[in-house]
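Researcher: Let's run the pair from yesterday's discussion. Sequence first, then C-alpha cells, for each.
Model: Starting with the first of the pair.
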Amino acid sequence: MVVIVPTNKSVEDFEGLHLYHGAISNCSMRVRMTLIEKGLDWESHHLDLKKKENITDVYFGINPNGLVPTLVDNGVVHIESNDIIDYLDDTYPKPSLRAENNEEMMEWLHLAAAIHVPACKPYVYATKMAAKIKKTPEEQAKYDALQKNQELKDFHGKHAGDKSFSTSDFDKAKAILGACFTKLEVTLEGRDWIMGDRFSLADISWIPLYFVIVGCGFSFENYPNIRRWAAAFEARESYQQGILKWCPDFSLV
C-alpha cells in the first residue's frame, strides 16, 4: 500500500472516496472498475491528460509523480493503481474480489505494475500518444521542475522536443508485452478468468492493458484465449462504465 502525505493539504479535508483519474489512462481504468464492482460511491476529479491537466503545482501537491490515478479516502492519499485496487478490496471487503490463491493473484498485480514503465508506456507513447501530447518548451520546463521521479523524467525525456522513441525502445517494449501476454494466454487455457472460475482483481488489473494495447495496434490474432477472456468483459457493468464510458475506443484517441 502506497500512502502519500500530500503537500496540497486541501485533500486531507475530503470526506468519502475521491478519485483523480484520466479517461484514457489504463491505470485509472482498473480503479474505476474496482469501485464499480464494489458498488462504492465516489467523487470524480477528472484530469484531461491530453491537455496536460495533471502537470500543475496543485496536482503534484497531491501526487508527487503527477500520475493518475490518485485515490483519496477520507483525507488519506493513495497512489499506484494496483496498490489502490488491493487497498479497496481489503478495506471494503464485500463483495470480495479476492481469489482463493491470493498469492498468485497478487503476482499478476505485481507483474502488471512491473511492466508499466518499461513496456506499456513506451509502446503506447511510441504508437499513439507521444505526438498527441507533445509539450511546448514551457510545458516541458514546468514538468521537469515538478517531477522528482528520475525514472519518469528519463522516460519523458525520450520524446521531449523533437526526440522520438528509438527502435530498440519500441522493440524491447513489444518483446516484454509479447512475453507477458503469452503467459496470460497459457494461464487462460481452460479457464474463464485468470484465477479460474472466479473473477478477481487479477482480471481487473489486466483487462485495461489489453484494451489500451490492442487500441495501439498490438495483434492478438495468435491469442485466442485472451480474445475469449476479453469478450467476456463486455457484459460487465464495470467494463462498460469504468472503461467504455470514458474511452469508447482507444484506437480513436
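Model: Moving on to the second of the pair.
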Amino acid sequence: MAASERGDFSEIPMLDVSGLYGGDEAAIREIASTLRGYLENIGFLYVVGHSIPRADVEAVREASKRFFALPEEQKLALKIDKNFRGYLPFAGSTIVTSSVATVSKPNQSESIFFMHEVEADDPRALAGKPLQGPNQWPDEAVLPGFHATIQRYVDAMSTLARKMVGAISISLGLPADSLDRHFDDPTTFLRLLHYPTQPKEEGLFGSAPHTDYGFITLLAQDDVGGLEVKNKAGDWVPAPPVPDSFVMNVGDILARWSNDQFVSTPHRVINRSGRERYSQPFFFDPSMEATIEALPVCVPQGTAPKYGPVEYGDYLMERIDKNYHYRKKLAAEAGDA
C-alpha cells in the first residue's frame, strides 16, 4: 500500500508494533518512522503485533453481547449519567458537529460507556468536575464477571495506547516521554457498541460521517464489517475486520496538537450485512486539565500555529454537549432550575 500524497489511499495499511515491546532502539525508531507516514497521509492503520490476547478481546465482545441482550428496563437502569458513563439507548446521538456531512438522523446503534474510574468520594467528583464520577456496572448476579473482564481489557488497552503515544513522540523527533505529562491522568473511554441490522434508507448510518474528538482511537471489530474511511477523492474505503488487529486512527486533538501535520480522517459505519454488529472502540485522550497547543516541532519556522491553546476538558465538553441528546435535556433541566 502506497500513499503518494496526503489523503491518496485505497486501502488501510498495517503496522506490526511488536518491536515497541522490546528494547531495540533501532526497531522502535523504524516503527515510529513508518507510523508517522501513515498518520500524516492517511490517519488510519491496522495495529498488529500487540500483546493483547485474542481471548481478552473476544471476552469483551461476549460481555457486550450479554449486556445488550438484557431486557430494556435492565439496561435503562444504567442510563448514561452527567458524567458520561452508562447506557446510551438506541438512536441516542446525532453527530451535529460533523465537518464532513450534514447529519439529521440519529446513529443506528445503542452503546454503553465506561470511562476512567473515579470514586464517588474522589475530590474531583465531590467538586462536580466534568466527567468525573464512578462508572455504572451491571449487577454481578445478572452478568457475572462483566466488571473484571472490562477492567482487565481497559488496563491492557491503556498500556498499548501509552506505547503508541511514545511512538508518536519519537516519530516527531522528540524523546519518547515528551507527551507523558499530558497523560498523567488520562481521559479514557471504552464504548461497547451494538448496531442492529440496518434498513436501507437515505441518510441513515450506524455511525454518521465524523472525525473522532480525541488523541487516538484503538478499535476492535467483530467479523461483520461496515467501517469505511474517506480518502482525498471522496471515496469511502472499507476497513474490513483483520484478525488480531486494532484499527487505530488520529483524533481531532492530535491533529490540532500536531498543527495538522497528522490528519484526522472522516469515517463512518453502515451495517449492510444483514447481521448484528458489535464493536469496541477505546479512546485514549489527555488529562482533562491538560493544555494542548501546537508542538513547536510541528510549526514551520516563521509561521504561527494554526490553533491557539485549549484546555482539553473544555474542548471535549463542547463536542459532547452538542452531539448527545441526553446532554441537551440535562442542559434544559439545569436552565429551568
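Researcher: Give me one sentence on the second I can quote.
Model: The domain at 14-285+315-336 is CATH 2.60.120.330 (Jelly Rolls).
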